[in-house]
Structure formats: structure tokens, C-alpha cells
Amino acid sequence: MHFNKKVIQRAMPIYIGYLFLGLACGILGQQAHIAPIEAFVMSILAYSGSGQFICIAMLMDNASLFSILVTNFMVSLRYMFFSTAMYPHIKDCSLPYSIIFAQNITDETFAVNLDSFSKDKDWDPQQGLALGFSPCLVWASANFIGCTAAAWLNPPTELVSYILVAMFLGIWSGYLHDTVLLIAGLLGGILSVLLSFVVPFKLHIVLATLIVSVIACWLEVKRSKNEEANS
């Protein structure tokens, strides 16, 4: 794992977002009677912000373990596609490396890593692993701190949604020069909001992502064919 200045610069929006979101998640976890060490371990082993928020919400609603597992499995299916997309960039690495790399894939680290592998010839798998693993430590530590602090304080959690949006906008701003990615981002946001009125259990995010990914791939293929025809 190669942790350097380049990794820090590219991961900084993720660090900031995960810090505040992790604090909020830890606070909510304490309200669901999760101990700080449990929040930390869960953040490492089940490294999924959406999955943890859903798990905590369902625990507070006294949902069964089976329903929590099934819901999280469905919400986290997108990581299978993310891992598949990253494979060509790490195919020469060992199996233990691949397992650790896949464990640390999130929406944000996937986007930044994929862009870095595609556009930076000096970006290697060791830097990619550092970019995936370091935000995990920030997220887990923030969960621990938030869960610990919530035992004495009663901090507000209403700003969670705004923090999440701000983090995604910070990452997405690096792609505004690409028409296809700009269209995909706008369409994904609009579609996710519309689907949220009819699709339960936060699955509208997964559905919107899959639909927009297909559209973006189609637009990219079409653009590539047009460029080949004009060359």
C-alpha cells in the first residue's frame, strides 16, 4: 500500500464527507444501543455507509436479523459491479490484495480510483489500495467518536443528508468537463429523486444507478463509434 500526497489530495473530499457522515452514523448507532467498539468493528467489516444507516434504522424499528441482512444484500449488490469494473486494473495483483481492495470499495472510492486508473499512467494498485483503505479508517474512527460522544451529548443529525450531497458534488465536480458524465450525473440525481417516491428501502438509489450506468455506457459507445467514423 502506497500512501502519498497524491492519494491524500484525491481522497480529501471523501475524508471530509466520511468524517461528518461517520459522526452522524455513530450518533444514530448509539441511539440504537450500539456500543462504540461495535460501531467501529461494524464500520470495518460492513464498510457501507448506506448499509450501516439502513441497519441502524431497521434495528430501531425492531426489524428481524433476516430482513436486515436481505435489505443490505440488495442495497450492496452494486459493489459486485464496481469490483468487476476495477478488475482489469488489478488483475496482476495477488488474491489477498484483491480481497482487501474489494473490501474497501465504496461509491466514492470507486469513482475516484476508476478515474485515476483511466487518466493517470502513474496511478498504480498500491495507491489505489491506499485510497480505498484510508477513508475506511476515517469512517470507522468517526463512527467510534460519534457513538462515544452521543452517550453524553445530544448532537443534531439533520445535516446528514446535506453532508452526503456536498461530498458527492465535490467528487462529481471533477467530471464536469465530460459531457457523458455530466449528463449521467444530472440524470442519476433526477431519476433517484423521482424513484424515491415509489421504491422502498432506499433501493431507488441502486435502481437509478443501474439505469443511468446503462445509459452512460450506451452514450460512451456511441461517442466512440462517432469518433472512429470521423477519424
UniProtKB/TrEMBL annotation:
Which PROSITE patterns did the record assign? PROKAR_LIPOPROTEIN (PS51257)
Q: Name one GO cellular component term.
A: plasma membrane
In terms of Pfam families, this protein maps to: AzlC (PF03591)
**An individual GO BP term:** L-valine transmembrane transport
Concerning InterPro entries, the annotation shows: Brnchd-chn_aa_trnsp_permease (IPR011606)
Name its cellular compartments.
Answer: Cell membrane
Keyword terms of this UniProt record: Cell membrane, Membrane, Transmembrane, Transmembrane helix, Transport
The primary location reported for this protein is: membrane
Indicate the transmembrane segments per the record: 12-28, 40-59, 65-81, 129-153, 159-175, 205-221
The membrane topology of this protein is: Multi-pass membrane protein
Classify the source by domain of life.
Bacteria
Similarity comment: Belongs to the AzlC family.
Q: What is the protein's name according to its record? A: 4-azaleucine resistance probable transporter AzlC
